[in-house]
Design a protein that fits this description.
single chain, 249 residues, alpha/beta, Spore Coat Polysaccharide Biosynthesis Protein SpsA, Chain A, 9 helices, 9 strands
């Protein structure tokens, strides 16, 4: 009996980042898994990114380039177009750890019946290109998300079943995915953590470049979604923010 493998929708959002996008596209195209739908949402780039995308149009399922309201608006556009049974958000600059990842998750080694959230570890890469650590995720439960926030699991290393997918709130510039985790919580009936790294996470991204806003949005999400319970995460958030403010002057 031939096993039918699920279609995976990989969504990449990009804006004026053609070199980063090339790395991400090559990572997707290198996958040995053969049931991939690749969607690219560009925010109206003017640096040649669109030309790069068009040069690979035969390998891309859907592409659009137009002005948007930010990264989460772009992701929502990707969700609207996705036809796969599982969705993954691999933004420009993100890469899978190797060409076997999707096959290892969906074809070779994992029973995914009755599971609607899959995720794994990440390889952390510093700004010099050196891999410095492997970070394992935590269980997708409310206590972990309240205490650890987006440190519970890496957004890029998640695969969400299409039957529970939610669109992102456009209120947040940097912490839309944290708010999104709380949206997914009541819908996730069963999750599975794979025992190997899924993606490479590069330091120096937008969140680190906008450190104060990143932490302020975290506080906002925690209190609005959890009330008093959100205080659990406050000591670490406030300490980290104050340390950064003092350091930067």
């Amino acid at each position: 009996m031939i096993k039918i493998v699920p279609k995976i929708s990989i969504i990449t959002v990009v804006f004026n980042a053609k070199e980063d996008l090339k790395k991400t596209m090559q990572s997707v195209f290198a996958q040995t898994y053969d049931n991939i739908e690749y969607i690219i949402i560009d925010g109206g780039s003017t640096d040649g990114t669109v030309d790069v995308i068009k040069s690979y149009k035969d390998k891309i399922s859907y592409f659009i380039s137009e002005k948007d309201e930010g990264i989460y608006d772009a992701m929502n556009k990707g969700i609207e177009q996705a036809k796969g049974e599982w969705l993954n958000f691999l933004n420009a600059g993100d890469v899978f750890v190797d060409s076997q990842v999707l096959g290892n998750i969906f074809k070779n080694s994992i029973d995914i019946d009755n599971i609607n959230l899959l995720y794994g570890s990440i390889v952390v890469r510093d700004t010099s290109g050196k891999d410095i650590a492997i970070v394992k995720p935590k269980k997708f439960i409310k206590l972990n998300i309240v205490f650890w926030g987006t440190g519970t699991l890496c957004h890029q290393a998640m695969f969400v079943s299409s039957d529970i997918i939610e669109k992102y709130s456009l209120k947040y510039k940097l912490k839309g995915e944290l708010n999104w985790y709380f949206d997914l919580l009541p819908k996730v009936k069963k999750f599975k953590i794979v025992d190997f790294p899924v993606v490479v996470y590069s330091l120096g991204g937008t969140g680190e470049q906008n450190y104060r806003l990143n932490h302020l949005e975290t506080i906002d999400v925690m209190f609005k979604r959890n009330g008093i319970f959100g205080i659990l995460s406050m000591p670490f958030i406030v300490y980290s923010l104050l340390k950064h403010i003092i350091k930067r002057g």
